[in-house]
Amino acid sequence: MLLVAATATVCAQDVPVQTEVPVVNCTVDVFNATIEINHDDPEAVIYWRYNYYDWPDWTAWTDWKVYTEPVELQFKDNLYIIEYQVECYAVSPGKTASEVVEYSFSDTYAEFGFPQVTPPLVYANRVDNEQGLAVRIVDGLFGDSNKYPLYGDNSFLLYVAGGRYIKPEHYYYKINDSNEWIEYVGEIYLDQYGEYKIMAKTTNGNLEREVTATVVYDSTGFISQSDRTIVCDGLVYYTDEDNTASVPDYYVNYLWSMTYPIIAPLRSGNIVIPGVIHINNQNYTVKSIGCNAFDHFSGVSIPSTVTLIHVNDYDCHEGYPLLASLSVEEGNPVYDSRNNCNAVIETASNQLILGCLNTVIPETVTEIGTKAFYFCNNLASISIPASVTTIKDDAFYCGGLRKVVCHSVTPPSVESYSFYVFACFDERTTTLFVPTESLAAYQAHDKWSKFSRIVPFLGAGPGDINGDGKIAISDVTNLINQLLASGEMPAFCDVNGDGKVSIADVSTLIELLLNGN
Fold first, then answer.
1. How far separated are the first and last CA of the chain, in Å rounded?
2. pLDDT digit string (tens) for 467-512?
3. Got the DSSP string for 210-249?
4. pTM here?
5. Overall CATH class of domain 462-514
6. How far is CA 393 from CA 73, 311, 444, in A?
7. Which CATH architecture has domain 311-457?
8. How far is the CA of 187 from the CAs of 280, 332, 401, in angstroms?
9. Cα(288)–Cα(286) distance, rounded to whole angstroms?
10. What CATH number has the domain spanning 3-113?
């Protein structure tokens, strides 16, 4: 047993000086989350009282009472309250009562918290044609892995989000109205269609956690309400009590595919997310999409019901390297994909929040959001319309970008992390094309000037050699004439941005025409 002693301060009292005074000390049993008071006199009686911090205030001191056994800490919101003040003293026959000693347990343990056994999760695993629906009870944090390091008393310990979690030693369950806990040793099979209430419990010593799950077994699928997870068409969704559903982080689907490959195989390719999922005679409206949810998809269609997309959260750090097409269903009140732009735009703010390999930024967009093209590493070029005034941090955190065409006469503002606006590609090998009249402004800008090669263009963009606002065969003729003429070549004739004007620029211009650019 691991014991952690607290810092003690002695409160002076008017007591006679004696040589025999019971020694009192207070410790905390970290594994069992209890307060223990010890003394050196077997005949002594310990008196104590305590209070604890229950935000936003401290509770009142308890009455003085006799200490008889370790006292478990208060448990609230799935965590033990760990800020305590304890006062205690000892009285022994024929001896002077000890001084009142005060102990404080607070910041010493606030970083990690006291341990608790991880909760169980109840999963409907698969349908066995002979035995029915297989139900598994697993450790909510550790799963079935035994690869975690030992931490005292043969218990497993994991530090997660400010708390300590111990691997369970035993699992128990009850089904429907049964009053008897049965130790779980393997899959439970439900052999009849219907709704089952399954109570599951994990224990380790005197620590235990309990959940109640509703598992529905029918011909269409299943729902496990211990964590309110459903599977539809092989994709995992989280649900809430208001019958809404969300697409979780990609890793949730990845882990499910590893654990339950039959019912939740890892999806790829194109996917149309349904607005409403009908399963087990219940409708769930899809309302939100989590970070990195489309990590392995090449095309995604988002329904009109989705009103929250987590794209630029701090934890959204994977991006969408394979995503080539994006669309939002018409009628969505928050997002749109105007002009078939292959992007998600927040309608009210005109901010492009998510792009992909084939995004064409509409001329109505005024802002490119944080991580909009995060890790879109196959994106080779991007054209930023004149309407864009702001580019957020990490907007183009993508390694393959080699050509940036910015049509804004006034350089768009970029946020504080200048190296992260176009962070993951090398500005030394990426060409920035800007309007001819704005060349000096971009070259003098503290962030845009980091592009070592900034090339001016006329009219519609690189390749509009005659500056008439469009790229046509006449520009090819004009460029050839420029090459045949003697004298210095205008900078806007550098169509491919390699720093010189040559026949290679004619080839690039012809390619632009053939590709409809």
1. 72
2. 777 778 877 777 777 777 766 777 777 787 777 778 887 887 788 7
3. EEEEEEEESSS--EETTTTEEEETTEEEEE-TTSEEEE--
4. 0.58
5. mainly alpha
6. 45, 13, 20
7. Alpha-Beta Horseshoe (3.80)
8. 22, 43, 50
9. 6
10. 2.60.40
